[in-house]
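Quick start: load a record and inspect it. Here is CDP-diacylglycerol--glycerol-3-phosphate 3-phosphatidyltransferase:
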Amino acid sequence: MTMRENNWTIPNLLTVVRIMLTPVVVMAFIHKRVDLALLSFFVAGITDALDGLLARLLKQRTELGAMLDPLADKVLIVATILCLGILEWVPAWLVVIVITRDLIIVGGLMLVNLWGVDVRSQIRPTFASKTNTSAQIVLILLILTERMDWMFLPWLQPVVLYLTAVLTVYTGIDYVMRGLALIPSGEDGKG
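Running the structure step on this input writes:
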């Protein structure tokens, strides 16, 4: 008899909270409540920082958490970037880069998985991809604080915007290259 993994951990609950905050952020934009969008996104960003840290500290890493955490990040960031793009608070090219990268990654992972490759054990987030997620979160927070007239370092937002664009493209290419390396080739199905 095998023991089942307990998925009701503090880190996983924080990840679920982040997913649940995404519609709150979107509704805040719809109702022109930048203050609520900022607060909700900030709390969601905190849950992103805490879930991984607590999973390591409390030794509560789970397979569910390993799948849910990046999904929660993508859902939150893509939804928020899309809202910012619709409002023309970020350039359209950035919206295209962020959404295209995530669609390619998710589609590619599903495709590689169809070939029977255990993607979860083969492709792990890298330092660059974690930095990219952090840069995207910081950029969104900078944009929202600017809209609240709280911008304290006006030169920082364009720097983070271009850094985010470069990191998004770089990590997208990195994931594609790592995914392609996993595709079986040849008649025996091995690389």
